[in-house]
Amino acid sequence: MNPFDYRRAASAEEAIRHIGTHGAKFLGGGTNLIDLMKLDVEQPAMLVDITKLDLAKVVPTTNGGLMIGALVRNSDLANHPQVVERYPLLSQALLSGASPQLRNMATTGGNLLQRTRCYYFNDTAFPACNKRVPGSGCAAIQGFNRIHAILGQSDHGPTSGESCIATNPSDMNVALAALGATVHIQNSKGKHSMPISAFHRLPGSTPQLDTNLQPDELIVAVELSAPLFAKNSSYLKVRDRQSYAFALVSVAAGLEMDGDTIKSAGLALGGVAHKPWRSLEAEQSMAGATPSRQSFEKAADLVLFRAKGYEHNGFKIQLAKQSIVRALTLAARGTNAGVEA
Amino acid sequence: MAAGLPRLAAAQAAHQAEATTVKRIDVSLNVNGKTQQLNLDTRTMLLDALREHMDLTGSKKGCDHGQCGACTVLIDGRRVNSCLTLAVAVAGAEIVTVEGLAKGDDLSPVQQAFMDHDGFQCGYCTPGQICSATALIEEAGKGQLSQVSWRTGKTTHPEISDDEIRERMSGNICRCGAYPNIVAAVRTALGKGASA
Fold it and tell me: Mean pLDDT of successive 10-residue segments in chain A (341 residues)?
């Protein structure tokens, strides 16, 4: 790990002032950043510790939603009564990720910025990774690509400077995508916000960029609008072991019911793309339908018809289809019905 | 040009020297009720501060990447991975390690349960397991949920079944595979409503 300066910021303004320093990075829970620093993937010249800022509150908004401070820890958010009661999809997703220790450390803002677990990104012994060294190529395309993307990837061959088939590893982000969350941001000029769909990026021609957050900007909060899916939601995570592993495929599914009819739906996938993969077409296809295998399979096909697999992850296409149908079926059965019921 | 190049080289050398210079910082750590002043390289993890600078070698270094849980300690009552925690970032916090759980020779209920159930083999992961289980009992007492709670639909102050114990202890890996006895130890400690 490279040496670095350490500053503990007392206010958001002070933190933003420090972040202007060359090579400075914010330190929140540190579960991802410190790990990447140990691997020399991240080499900040300065860490600006923001953990003492007053950004750890969860507050109801006037329009029936919830404002979640960027420093609310994952375990606190998952267990917050408002989240358990009104946004169970988010609680489920958070508790599906990492371990109790890591959830106690990891923050809401940090989880939004969690970097890919692509083996080639995380191991500096591999020279080719456009995300780590722009222009160097993508070792995953012809490498071991079991955990890689099937949707929205950038694939112009392994030597292209634009190729990247990495996935976003977060569970929280998938639930936030299905819930249509808004990310609130502060910089030296003031505050602005963007929908989560515009926050995370597809690799396009600049795979080194995970998000549209600028390097000198601070995430201050995540806002949820009034809940639609409290009674009918399900987060389904499929992975190589039952707990404490990243998703091969995950599905955040929410249904707003009107009697026996689906009024609206929220549907997003994790483990399949560079960003949480929300499909508005699939969501809209379910509006007005009755919950059935047929309507859910139609939605799954709409999500996946453009999917492309690689040598080791072709199975994800079928797995994702079946996971979507299962997550929607469980959501239709009711949030607290229990998988094993 | 002739004058510019050496200046550029000098600037690059200065930048390089700055980038490799160790940065030190004064840190006051409160561990097991005692406060100690240290002067540390900013890179020092809490785990290394405990083991190398404070002679508290109970917390173990397994993976050093937050994957195995051998380094688990309690910070302000919450279990965390000390290998991913910068020492400087927890200055002023209340840190408890496995050395701080017993009262003199009286083992904590979780420690006693691990003894009674033979909840270890080589013992390397045990301090982390014990710190983790101590926090688990505290969390369960507050009615906190796990993904098992959602899967079973029991989301109001769930009872801690063996499935819940396994899930809630999943951040602590045991290479010997002493899991059945670890689950039994945690079950017993929970039954006593024990906490540190």
Answer: 97 97 96 98 98 98 98 98 98 98 98 98 98 98 98 98 98 98 98 98 98 97 98 98 96 98 98 98 98 98 97 98 98 88 44
With CA atoms as reference, the chain A residue closest to B78 would be A104
Q: Which domain holds residue A38?
A: 5-52
Residues from chain B that touch A244, judged by Cβ atoms under 8 A, are 170-171
Q: Is there a domain that residue A251 lies in? A: yes
B78·A104 Cβ contact <8 A: yes
pLDDT digit string, tens, across residues B143-155: 999 999 999 999 9
Predicted ipTM of the assembly? 0.96
Residues of B in contact with A30 (CB under 8 A): 84-86, 89
> CB under 8 Å, gap of 24 or more: what pairs does A262-266 form?
A262/A286, A262/A287, A262/A288, A262/A289, A262/A290, A262/A291, A262/A295, A263/A287, A264/A228, A265/A299, A265/A328, A266/A89, A266/A178, A266/A179, A266/A180, A266/A228, A266/A229, A266/A233
Has residue A125 been placed in a domain? no
